[in-house]
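Quick one: examine the sequence and fold tokens given here and explain what the tokens say about the fold. Here goes:
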Amino acid sequence: MNERQKHILAAVVKEYTETALPVGSGVLVQKYLPDVSSATIRNDMAELEDEGYLYQPHISSGRIPTDEGYRYFVEEVMEDRELSLDEQQSLQKELLQLRAKNVRLARTTAKLLSALSGGVGLSGVVSKNKEEFYEFGLPHLLEQATERGDIDEVCRLAEVLDLIDEKLDVLLDRVKDGETRIFIGKENPISEISGYSMVVSPYTSKGGDRGVIALIGPKRMEYAKNKSLIDYVKRLLSSSGVVIVILSSGAVVLIS
């Protein structure tokens, strides 16, 4: 894939992520590649389709990324994205507020991941004395599925989430402790939800408990944002147990 085609793939991924509509050459010229002719872009898109990176749902429509296209984008094109200081402080402040209401940490984490990603947030902890697993955000995906007229996919996801604690070993077997993995579509270790993508990261807390956090969302999710979100939350959960929060007022708060 040459550099221009990489730019085209990245632009298709970005546009489709934002609009959920097939992307045509006209949009790419207008918004992303004004110095490249429509004919050249159409030829490149046709080549990318032949190579399995793009897919044309209808003859007269634009194109959308395939699982292989997303994989190439994630591995070869996507740049890592660090959460901004404002995002970090906002996340820690939300965590503090939920902890102040005596909400369990695993439940708090799942809720925050869902709220910040717009997908389903998962958080589980396994220790000698307990096993907790929480999920939040299924209504987000149900709403999207209703708009697309694709209820079957989200129904399968709902069935899996009901038994997600039984799938924990499947996730932990595929991802090393401390590693963050992105599974796209049919790569998903939980085969029943191959219509979605998942960002997963196991961790070990200071107390020795083994946990896992994950995000499940449509294949057009914001991969860089969601990976950075998982990485940051994982650092909070596996840290020394004290989080320093600097509020906008300048006050410093410690979460133990």
